[in-house]
């Protein structure tokens, strides 16, 4: 690993605060949190004591919170759909705006957003309801 990569990664394997300093536009952040699945991911991470969960635990929590409105899928099929969408769509989008770090080697997902993201979550949470 080169020195630059080591500087961007903290001792816990996640990005250091310096690496997370961003020039990501507010529009990209709003777009990232504008999806129910991504908000469920952020809420699940933010509600844990260290804001880190295993990928499998995160899938379970997101699947429990987000219901498939199109069809009445069996729970296993619903969880598999959530798992696939998280891996291919939602986590990459949240990583792109530096709100989460997903370490596929360890299976850990961490909330690394700052005050802006926390403020957005607090504002949006009042409108998100479990139905």
Automatic annotation (TrEMBL):
Q: Where is this region: Disordered?
A: 1-27
Name the source's superkingdom: Archaea
Its transmembrane ranges are none
Name of the protein in its database record:
DUF7344 domain-containing protein
Where's the DUF7344 domain? 33-109
Q: Where is the composition biased (Basic and acidic residues)?
A: 1-10
Q: Which Pfam families match?
A: DUF7344
Task: Record the organism.
Answer: Halodesulfurarchaeum formicicum
């Amino acid at each position: 690993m080169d020195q630059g990569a080591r500087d961007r990664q903290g001792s816990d394997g996640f990005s250091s605060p310096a690496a997370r300093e961003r020039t990501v536009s507010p529009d990209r952040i709003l777009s990232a949190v504008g999806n129910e699945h991504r908000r469920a991911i952020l809420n699940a991470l933010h509600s844990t004591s260290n804001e880190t969960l295993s990928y499998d635990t995160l899938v379970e929590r997101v699947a429990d919170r987000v219901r498939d409105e199109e069809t009445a899928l069996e729970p296993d099929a619903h969880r598999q759909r959530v798992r696939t969408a998280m891996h291919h769509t939602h986590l990459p989008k949240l990583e792109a705006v530096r709100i989460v770090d997903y370490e596929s080697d360890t299976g850990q997902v961490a909330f690394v957003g700052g005050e802006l993201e926390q403020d957005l979550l607090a504002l949006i949470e009042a409108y998100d309801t479990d139905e």
